[in-house]
Amino acid sequence: MRERVKEIILESIQVKEELLKSKISQILEISEVIIEALKKGGKLIVFGNGGSASDAQHIAAELIGRFKKDRPALAALALTTNTSVITALANDFGYETVFSRQLEALAGKLDVAFGISTSGRAKNVALALKQARKMGLKTIALTGGDGGELVRLADIALVVPSSVTARIQEAHITIGHILCELIEEASLA
Measuring CA to CA, which residue among 6, 60, 27, 10 is closest to residue 174? Predict the structure, then answer.
């Protein structure tokens, strides 16, 4: 078992080393889009399913609360937290609409829509990015594998170079933390 643990940790490190080699420019581009939106009075709207829903909530919480330093709250919203809205939309319109309908109701032109999907194939995330584009929002996708449909739906799509869901999720939260730190350091307060 000790060897298996070592293999898992090394696999995670290898994915992050690949991020270091090839994804820094995209991470910076994403942070700049979010910082610009927040400076103009917009908000970051984040969404995803399962572990990606947790990441969406985590990122929003870090921005609204604090990441590393005390500062005024930053405008961020996870579309994964209101079970009454999610279940009503899923029941009345279909699960694929749970994020797009919320964007339609809650988003403004200055906002950034940030969809997270390890495969890039989540139908509700894709539909939300389509809705966001229709509304004139900047769109970001955080995916893995081959990026799926989200790659062509987002203004910026960062594809984690792995096909292993757990490694993709680990990289996603690393990227999320980097974004939170860069946003916080931008002195938006």
Answer: 27
42 DSSP 8-state letter: -
Query: Residue 123: which of 102, 146, 153 has the closest Cα?
Result: 153
Judge whether residue 99 has pLDDT over 90: yes
Taking only the tens place, the pLDDT of each residue in 1-36 is 999 999 999 999 999 999 999 999 999 999 999 999
E strand map for the chain: 44-48, 76-78, 112-116, 138-144, 156-160
**Could you give the residue ranges of the DSSP H alpha helices within 45-164?**
51-64, 83-92, 100-106, 123-134, 150-153
Q: Which one of 3.40.50.10490, 3.40.50.970, 3.40.190.10, 3.40.50.920 gives the CATH number of domain 2-185?
A: 3.40.50.10490
Contacts of residue 154, defined as CB under 8 A and 6 or more positions apart, other chains included, come to 115, 129, 139, 140, 141
Backbone angles phi, psi at 12, to 5 degrees: -65, -45
Whole-structure pTM value: 0.96
